[in-house]
Amino acid sequence: MKKHLLSINDLTAADALEILNTARELAKISDGPVKKLPTLRGRTVVNLFFEDSTRTRISFESAAKRLSADVINFSAKGSSVSKGESLKDTAQTLQAMGADAVVIRHGASGAAQRLADSGWISASVINAGDGTHEHPTQALLDAYTIRSRFPEFRESFDGLKVGIVGDILHSRVARSNVLLLTKLGAHVTLIAPPTLIPVGVTDWKVDVSYNLDSIINSVDVLMVLRVQSERMADSFFPSEREYSRGYGLDLARLNSLKENAIVMHPGPMNRGLEISAESADSHKSVVLAQVSNGVLVRMAVLYQLLGGAALAGEVSV
């Protein structure tokens, strides 16, 4: 595995499977009476968040602490960043503090790459979401969750059918999931109104549908995306009611899914818009499992980036 995790493109299929397998072994430890490993004792992980986050930030914090790392949470709000400090100055401050890994979330696409390539910092950089570009650890935890529910796809996703419905245009989660799921062999269909399908999607190695009802009974996994109103400067659909009617997962559509199909959502959910309360809380929903699995997968990523060969034998994969 490379020094940084900025994009799913940084991983081969074998790299991704190694992370998922490591997470599976770490799950066995987490289920035991002692949930912590001494693996990263003496290391410092900084959560550098320029955008609001609850699940991702807490997940990375929990993952680092379970590996015995020291954690510094840095929020742009109330910090020197809000007073005009540049990314360079912030990075050099973290370097002076001895950061070994920096987990960055930023509103600008490419910010994580900029930090990694800048030479301002020697730490490993993990992209926790940059603009509308990518969110690689979310895709990894989604793949881990899928494998947990479909043991037959443990080594390959060949034959798995995944539908991703919603605001594809603004979704870094969709981009990372498309890259990872297709890399592992899954067949992916994007479902959205034409206004929420990105330009250049023909290069994504996916199918595109504008009709959710036409494909919902054929998928094994339905990944529902949040409508990101905060990123929409224009109107991309007539009304929320119209969007929900055409692309929301309601009870009728939930009942149209295969018996063993699962429903995923990266959160936070807009209940009543892209997903109904009944769907979010149904037995097909794995939303809470995604949250739990996020800690394990992020532990595995930190383990692989900061531990390396010196940790061989501590966790058997």
Automatic annotation (TrEMBL):
Instruction: From the UniProt record, list the reaction(s) this protein catalyses.
Output: carbamoyl phosphate + L-aspartate = N-carbamoyl-L-aspartate + phosphate + H(+)
**Is ATP-binding there in the keyword field?**
no
From the Swiss-Prot or TrEMBL record, give the protein name. aspartate carbamoyltransferase
Residue span(s) of domain Aspartate/ornithine carbamoyltransferase Asp/Orn-binding: 158-304
A Gene Ontology annotation in the biological process aspect, one of them, is: amino acid metabolic process
Q: Which GO terms describe its molecular function?
A: amino acid binding; aspartate carbamoyltransferase activity
Write down the top EC class of this protein: transferase
**PANTHER family per record:** ASPARTATE CARBAMOYLTRANSFERASE, ORNITHINE CARBAMOYLTRANSFERASE, MITOCHONDRIAL
What pathway does this protein act in?
Pyrimidine metabolism; UMP biosynthesis via de novo pathway; (S)-dihydroorotate from bicarbonate: step 2/3
Q: Which PROSITE patterns match?
A: CARBAMOYLTRANSFERASE (PS00097)
The organism encoding this protein is freshwater metagenome
Q: What EC number(s) are associated with this protein in UniProt?
A: 2.1.3.2
Report the protein's function.
Catalyzes the condensation of carbamoyl phosphate and aspartate to form carbamoyl aspartate and inorganic phosphate, the committed step in the de novo pyrimidine nucleotide biosynthesis pathway.
Q: Where is the Aspartate/ornithine carbamoyltransferase carbamoyl-P binding domain?
A: 3-147
Q: Which Pfam families match?
A: OTCace, OTCace_N
What family is reported?
A: Belongs to the aspartate/ornithine carbamoyltransferase superfamily. ATCase family.
